[in-house]
What we know:
Blueprint (H helix, E strand, L loop, with lengths): L2 H12 L9 H17 L4 H17 L8 H17 L14 E6 L6 H14 L4 E6 L4 H14 L3 E2 L7 H14 L4 E6 L7 H14 L3 E7 L4 H14 L3 E5 L8 H10 L3 E5 L7 E3 L2 H8 L5 H10 L3 H12 L5 H14 L2 H6 L4 H7 L6 H12 L3 H5 L6 H11 L3 H22 L12
Amino acid sequence: xxxxxxxxxxxxxxxxxxxxxxxxxxxxxxxxxxxxxxxxxxxxxxxxxxxxxxxxxxxxxxxxxxxxxxxxxxxxxxxxxxxxxxxxxxxxxxxxxxxxxxxxxxxxxxxxxxxxxxxxxxxxxxxxxxxxxxxxxxxxxxxxxxxxxxxxxxxxxxxxxxxxxxxxxxxxxxxxxxxxxxxxxxxxxxxxxxxxxxxxxxxxxxxxxxxxxxxxxxxxxxxxxxxxxxxxxxxxxxxxxxxxxxxxxxxxxxxxxxxxxxxxxxxxxxxxxxxxxxxxxxxxxxxxxxxxxxxxxxxxxxxxxxxxxxxxxxxxxxxxxxxxxxxxxxxxxxxxxxxxxxxxxxxxxxxxxxxxxxxxxxxxxxxxxxxxxxxxxxxxxxxxxxxxxxxxxxxxxxxxxxxxxxxxxxxxxxxxxxxxxxxxxxxxxxxxxxxxxxxxx
Length: 441
C-alpha cells in the first residue's frame, strides 16, 4: 500500500538527516518534495495545498523543539497532518440499539461490493455477531450466485429471492427473516451500475427509505484514484452516505483516494480491504495508517493479527521447546501455518518499521512461493525425519527433493538454515547471545 508515496516521502526526509538545525530553505525543500509526492500520489489538488499549508504553519509553531532533529520535526508534523487528513479518530461502524443492525452497501459495479459484503460478514462474526448476507442485486444473477458461494464457503447464511422481487421488498423480507432467526446484523448487497444514473439512485433511495439502514456504506475501489472521490461525492449528495469501505488498497501504490476522500466529502473511511483473502479486511485506524505511509511500520496491527492466531497453550509448549533446544521441523511447519494465516509475508514485513522501504531500496523480492517450497519440502519428510532432521542424509535428501518438486540444493539450504536456528536457540537459552544472521539470509 502507498508504496510510491512512502518512498518519495522517505526520500525527502533522508535529505534532512544530516542537517544540524532547521533552516527556512530546508523546510521549503522538504515541503516541495512532499508536495510533489502528493501530486504523484493523485491526491486532490485542493487537499494537497491545504495539507502543505498546515504543515508549514505547524513547523513554524514547533521551532522551539530543540530535542528533535530537523527530519524528526518534519516527520512528526507530516504524521500529525496525515492523521488529521484521514480523520484523527477511528470511526467505528455504528450498531443499532435494537437488533438487527442494517448495513446497506452501495457502489458502482466492479468496486468489489459483493466480495466486501462477505468480508464484512466474516469480520462481524469474529466480533461475536451473527450476520445475514442479503442478495439485493436483482439485475445480475451472477452476483446472487457469487454471494451464495461466498456465504457457503464462510458458513454465513445468505437470503435471496431471485431476480423477480423488487430490491426494497427483498430487503424488508430479509430483515423480518433476521429477526425471526435471532440474527444480529443484516448486510444488503445492492445493485451497482457501470456509471451513476438516475434509475440506480432512485432504486437505492427506495431501499434506504424502506429499511432505514443503520449505516449506508459506499464501497469504492482505491485504484480508481480521484474517480473514487467523485463517485463518493455523488453518492453522498443523493443518499447521505455514512461511511466508506475502500477496497483493493493493497494494490494502490499511490493512495490519493484514501488521502482525499474524507477531506472532500466529509465521509469517513471506516473499513479497508487489504488483499484477496476473506480476512484481509480491517478497520481504518488513522494514526496506524499514517505510520505505514511514512514507513514507520504498524506494530500494533501486527501484534493484533498475531494475537488473533495465538494459542496460549501451544505458545508455552513452543517456549519450552526453545529453552530445551527440542524445537523440530514439525514445530517450524506449525509456525509457518500461523504466519500464513496472518497474511502475505510482504504485507507483514511492511508493518515492521523501516523494513518495507529497505526491501524496496535493495530491490529484494519477498515471494510467498518460497514459503510454499519450504512447506512442500517438510511435508515430503516422514514424521521421524521432521522430529530428527539429523538422520536426513544423501538418499533421503534425494527422495525428499523428488517428492516436493524441488532440488537437493533446496533441501540442503532448508536443513542448513534450520540447523543454524537450533544453534542460535541453544546460545540464547544458555545466555550467549550470538550475532543474528541477516534478515534475508
